[in-house]
């Protein structure tokens, strides 16, 4: 079996001939004999490597989950390393100035909440906006490509994932995801995939003979990677996923769990492909640090049979039943499971089978009508055919969310099936809109009334679609969290917006949002939110003044350093400690 990096170097160097290359990678970007993709590409006489980009955990994999990663210069190559986790998820224009083509070489693990694939998604957004080529150096999906499980993520249950909506277990490689996102979100990029030679959808990582490199600090082994997609569904609750032990996502439990009783209960549930051993463990960090935790260790007996989402939900259900009063679920669980209705069903003790059946029809439709069109590795599902390049057309901007009376200039960009750029003659574009919320004239969309709709552009045999939202602006809530090295303030809003301002004053930061109304949990007349335990922020005052929503952040220092990570439907300000 030959990973995409080796296939690229052996067969596809012409793709980057006379082009400046940026590489998105980390420590998992290695060949089958463990040579680093960074150093192979940097030393190759036919590759002009000009920049590196790192995901969560950094390009060397030495940062913990969720930890900010800063940009710097790589000591070994002298190349700039731009962080794509923390304040900047999507590459900024200045980060791509010296790049023509972006290579992506990172090992994913098949879960819809593992962040590497969304780093790819944000890179693709930047490639669409700044007209860069994308090449994915593909790698196997460690948990196989046959099974698809879990609810298809709702637009109301999005955090880091942005616009990229997937079920819990998607059963695709990173290359297949890139092909799908380019078409389904009308990005209009030239996307190429250096396929893995020898991989089939029914092959798991242990059968590949490729070396396993821990994908992140808490995914040390193949077994951990196999189980993560299922047992991660215990996170955002009062249960432990075993972080802080040598067997994260294999050991699960809580201090109040009776281990032997849980193991017996899980055996009664007859889950195929797994076995359960009573276990007690103590975490060195994280949840319940230093406390004795009762639970089970999950052992895989037949990986091809395991239904991971069913495994995770059954474990959660059994442990909740042991002591419902001690079982708690965080509000963020909806972002983990991806469905707004499932947390309520769990808390109301609905049977696991009923919960799974509640999303199955929608999942099956997505698998048949969307996912199966972009598969490039056999065996293919019934009636599905291998993906064939057909070119791609994209509509700019990627987000059309505005208030009534605004207008936005539209543009088309695309490539044919051979990767040649389309020379767009605007007189030959056919524009249509749905939803009766506005009209297009001379490539400009004019918003007339509130509602949701879609823009469609047809150019020859190519078609692209872009969703539209025309709405009043609402600030629904202001919330905050104190982290080890920064205080995060979140303003929940109802649409994307890029015309807000942050004004720096003496001991203040002021957010100004034009045409925004106060709604949700906030007081119509304005109010004050007191902040406790933050070394940099003491309170937030908010009010509506004329047509402007204003939020004053009262600082405990005269000047602070802050970042504004880009989230859908929220404004986020991270004030560094």
List the helices and strands and how they pair.
Blueprint (H helix, E strand, L loop, with lengths): L3 H8 L8 E6 L11 H7 L4 E7 L17 E2 L6 E4 L17 E5 L10 H15 L2 E5 L36 H11 L6 E4 L27 H10 L19 E4 L4 H10 L5 E9 L9 E9 L7 H15 L10 H5 L4 H6 L4 H18 L22 E5 L3 E3 L4 E3 L1 E5 L14 E5 L3 E4 L2 E4 L3 E9 L2 E9 L2 E10 L3 E8 L7 E5 L2 E7 L1 E3 L8 E4 L6 E9 L2 E8 L6 E2 L2 E2 L2 E7 L1
Helix pairs in contact: 3-4, 5-7
Kindly describe this structure.
It is a single chain. The chain has 577 residues and is α+β, with helices and mostly antiparallel strands. The chain contains 10 helices and 30 strands. The protein has helices at residues 4-11, 37-43, 116-130, 174-184, 222-231, 259-268, 308-322, 333-337, 342-347, 352-369, and strands at residues 20-25, 48-54, 72-73, 80-83, 101-105, 133-137, 191-194, 251-254, 274-282, 292-300, 392-396, 400-402, 407-409, 411-415, 430-434, 438-441, 444-447, 451-459, 462-470, 473-482, 486-493, 501-505, 508-514, 516-518, 527-530, 537-545, 548-555, 562-563, 566-567, 570-576. The strands form 7 sheets. Strands 3-4-2-1-5-6-7 form a 7-stranded mixed beta sheet, sandwiched between helices. Strands 20, 21, 24, 28, 29 and 30 form a 6-stranded mixed beta sheet that branches. A hairpin with a 2-residue loop joins strand 22 and strand 23. The longest helix is centred in the middle third of the chain and has 18 residues, at 352-369. It is globular, with a radius of gyration of 24 Å. The two termini are 47 Å apart.
């Amino acid at each position: 079996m030959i990973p995409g990096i080796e296939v690229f170097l052996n067969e596809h160097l012409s793709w980057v001939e006379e082009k400046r290359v940026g590489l998105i990678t980390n420590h998992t970007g290695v060949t089958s004999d463990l040579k680093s993709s960074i150093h192979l590409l940097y030393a190759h006489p036919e590759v002009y490597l000009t920049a590196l980009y790192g995901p969560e955990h950094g390009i060397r994999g030495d940062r913990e989950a969720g930890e900010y990663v800063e940009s710097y210069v790589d000591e070994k190559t002298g190349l700039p390393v731009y962080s794509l986790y923390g304040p900047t998820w999507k590459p900024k224009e200045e980060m791509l100035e010296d790049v023509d083509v972006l290579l992506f070489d990172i090992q994913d693990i098949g879960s819809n909440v593992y962040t590497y694939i969304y780093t790819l998604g944000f890179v693709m957004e930047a490639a669409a906006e700044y007209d860069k080529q994308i090449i994915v150096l593909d790698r196997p999906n460690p948990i196989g490509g046959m099974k698809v499980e879990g609810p298809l993520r709702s637009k109301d249950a999005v955090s880091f994932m942005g616009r990229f909506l997937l079920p819990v277990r998607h059963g695709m490689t990173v290359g297949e995801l890139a092909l799908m996102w380019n078409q389904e979100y009308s990005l209009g990029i030239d996307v190429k995939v250096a396929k893995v030679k020898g991989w089939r959808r029914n092959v798991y990582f242990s059968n590949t003979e490729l070396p396993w490199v821990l994908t992140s600090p808490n995914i040390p082994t193949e077994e951990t990677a196999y189980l993560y997609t299922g047992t991660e569904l215990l996170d955002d609750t009062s249960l432990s996923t075993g972080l802080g032990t040598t067997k994260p996502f294999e050991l699960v439990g809580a201090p109040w769990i009776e281990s032997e009783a849980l193991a017996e209960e899980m055996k009664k549930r007859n889950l195929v492909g797994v076995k359960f051993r009573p276990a007690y463990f103590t975490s060195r960090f994280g949840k319940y640090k230093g406390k004795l935790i009762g639970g089970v260790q999950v052992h895989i007996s037949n990986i091809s049979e395991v239904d991971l989402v069913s495994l995770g939900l059954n474990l959660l259900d059994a442990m909740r039943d042991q002591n419902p009063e001690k079982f708690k679920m965080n509000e963020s669980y909806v972002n983990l499971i991806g469905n707004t209705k499932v947390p309520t069903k769990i808390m109301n003790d609905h049977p696991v089978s009923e919960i799974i059946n509640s999303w199955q029809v929608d999942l099956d439709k997505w698998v048949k009508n969307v996912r199966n069109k972009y598969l490039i590795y056999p065996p293919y599902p019934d009636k599905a055919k291998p993906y064939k390049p057909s070119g791609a057309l994209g509509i700019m901007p990627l987000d059309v969310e505005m208030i009534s009376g605004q207008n936005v200039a539209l543009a088309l960009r695309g490539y044919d099936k051979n990767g040649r750029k389309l020379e767009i003659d605007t007189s030959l574009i056919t524009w249509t809109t749905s939803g009766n919320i506005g009209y297009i004239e001379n490539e400009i969309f004019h918003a007339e009334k509130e509602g949701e709709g879609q823009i469609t552009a047809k150019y020859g045999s190519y078609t692209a679609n872009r969703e539209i939202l025309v709405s009043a602006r609402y600030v629904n809530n202001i919330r905050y969290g104190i982290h080890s090295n920064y205080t995060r303030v979140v303003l929940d809003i109802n649409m994307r917006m890029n015309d807000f301002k942050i004004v720096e004053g003496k001991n203040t930061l002021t957010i100004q949002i034009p045409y925004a109304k106060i709604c949700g949990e906030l007081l119509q007349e304005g109010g004050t939110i007191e902040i406790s335990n933050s070394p940099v922020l003491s309170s937030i005052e908010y009010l509506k003044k004329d047509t402007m929503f204003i939020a004053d952040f009262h600082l405990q220092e005269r000047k602070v350093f802050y970042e504004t990570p880009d989230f859908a439907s929220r404004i986020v300000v991270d004030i560094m400690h």
